[in-house]
Write a structure and sequence with these properties.
Blueprint lengths: L9 H10 L4 H11 L11 H11 L6 E5 L7 H8 L2 E6 L2 H12 L7 E5 L14 E3 L6
Parallel strand pairs: 1-2, 1-4, 2-3
Amino acid sequence: MALEPVKQDNFDIFQEEYSRPRNQAVRQAERAVFGHEVGLNGYTTLEQAWELCDHLKLTVDDYLLDLGGGRGWPGLHIAQESHCGLVSTDIPLDALREAKVNVEARVLHSDVEVIAADGRALPFRSECFDAIVHADVFC
């Protein structure tokens, strides 16, 4: 008899994940490693976030779209380091609320927007971004 996996909508999984409070140990680890809370919600390491910065070579005149940005990692890191504009999108409202808190906690020299949007139907005109990241997005 073959076991059938239980199918659950990805939206429900991520809504549940983001609605859980983050524990103090995670918050302390982020402050120790990054100097502030970044809202880790995936598997992108600090080294990989730096590699994205190096590869993308964004400047103050550029705009980055972070699809499925969750609490803001690594899009906020890239925007902070490159001084580019950032639009971070995701669906779970709890994640977006935390992303806004993370934006306010940083000194950013760029325009940052956090928008509720589904990556399958984005509300942006064509060719308005210079780069797109989608770290740890599972569809």
